[in-house]
Write a structure and sequence with these properties.
This protein has one domain: Nuclear Transport Factor 2, Chain: A, CATH 3.10.450.50. The protein has two helices and six strands. Helices cover about 25% and strands about 50% of the residues. By secondary structure, the chain is of the alpha+beta class. It has a six-stranded mixed β-sheet, covered by helices on one side.
Length: about 150
């Protein structure tokens, strides 16, 4: 295994971690270190999203009705070919409600799949999706806060 491949794997694993941390800390600017400006994202139940700003807006909206969240990622598989790569990793995401809905929870297990391009500022995802394999709780807490 080449040092270039090892470095690509590590940088992409760290980008997945930044995605999880950005969600949980609501650090919207951190998503710029994960997604390319022309990223395309497919989330079940939503039209295909194109462009980093649209992706950040939908994530922001989905987490708007949540209190604490925790996105755990692991079991990475990264394949790289020069300036492009693909990745897969498991995700387990826990979401607690907000305010009067603080006792309502939603949890999922699945797999993130992404394609990557090496840009001057580092690896950025050009495609992102999640394959949800298991859900528990009330998904309705995902979305803008309920008044």
């Amino acid at each position: 295994m080449s040092s270039e491949l090892l470095l690509a794997e590590r940088e992409i694993e760290l980008a997945h971690g930044r995605y999880a941390r950005a969600c949980d800390s609501r650090d919207w600017a951190m998503f710029e270190t994960v997604f390319a400006p022309d990223v395309m994202v497919e989330f079940r139940g939503f039209p295909t999203l194109e462009g980093r700003d649209a992706v950040i807006a939908i994530i922001r909206s989905l987490l708007g009705g949540c209190g604490a969240t925790q996105h755990l990622v692991g079991n990475f598989v990264v394949t790289s070919a020069g300036k492009s790569a693909e990745s897969r990793c498991y995700v387990r995401a826990f979401h607690a409600g907000l305010g009067d809905r603080a006792a309502v929870t939603y949890e999922l297990m699945g797999e993130y799949r992404a394609r990557w391009r090496r840009l001057p500022e580092g690896w950025r995802s050009t495609y992102w999706t999640i394959d949800v394999q298991w859900e528990l709780g009330d998904r309705s807490i995902l979305g803008p806060p309920v008044d």
